[in-house]
Design a protein that fits this description.
Peptide Deformylase, about 190 residues, two-stranded parallel sheet, single chain, alpha+beta, five-stranded antiparallel β-sheet
Length: about 190
């Protein structure tokens, strides 16, 4: 089932999310709905708070980025062909590598894209959809997508990395999003 994406301005996007256990109600259904919603919305990642669940859960499919790159761009990122992974109760163990810039967007903040600096590498401890524990290191564009989604479960948004002047310039667009004055090709829910 397609879930509405929570729009910028909703307090759930500023919530530090809680760990869950395998008894979380309808978890498998939620995961299926998140994958379906993410793909329908042309996203490469989706965090539970973006679909109104304040829990430490997100999905990532960076393989889509690699399948859409030109041949000469494919060597640019060390993490090809990407991953498709569920992350439950993720916690960062280590950030490493140089910071690098990449143009990011967010399904909760449609039609705004900005260059954001993030570390090259992240090591996470997390559970998969079967609640098996993993400690893995990710790099390149996959690490970036993971860090973007991880920020969601920490109550952060990519625009928080912008300089104050840049944020001020975006204020009108952000206000329009929070008031529902935007048209997108997917279902959204707006703050009341």
């Amino acid at each position: 089932m397609l879930l509405p994406i929570v729009a910028y301005g909703d307090p759930i996007l500023r919530t530090v999310c809680k760990d869950i256990d395998k008894d979380y109600p309808s978890l498998q259904e939620l995961l299926e709905d998140m994958w379906e919603t993410m793909y329908y919305s042309n996203g490469v990642g989706l965090a539970a708070p973006q679909v109104n669940h304040p829990i430490r859960l997100f999905t990532v499919d960076s393989t889509q980025i690699f399948s859409n790159l030109d041949e000469e761009e494919k060597d640019k990122y060390p993490d090809g062909p990407g991953i498709k992974q569920v992350f439950i109760n993720a916690h960062i163990e280590e950030l490493d590598g140089e910071e690098w810039t990449y143009n990011e967007g967010c399904l909760s903040i449609p039609k705004i894209r900005e260059d954001i600096n993030r570390n090259e590498t992240v090591t996470l401890r997390f559970l998969d959809e079967n609640f098996a524990e993993h400690k893995m290191t990710f790099n390149g564009v996959t690490a970036r997508v993971i860090l973007h989604e991880y920020d969601h479960i920490e109550g952060k948004l990519f625009i928080d990395y912008l300089k104050p002047l840049k944020r001020k310039l975006l204020k009108g667009k952000l206000d329009d999003i929070s008031k529902g004055k935007i048209k997108v090709d997917y279902k959204m829910s707006f703050p009341k």
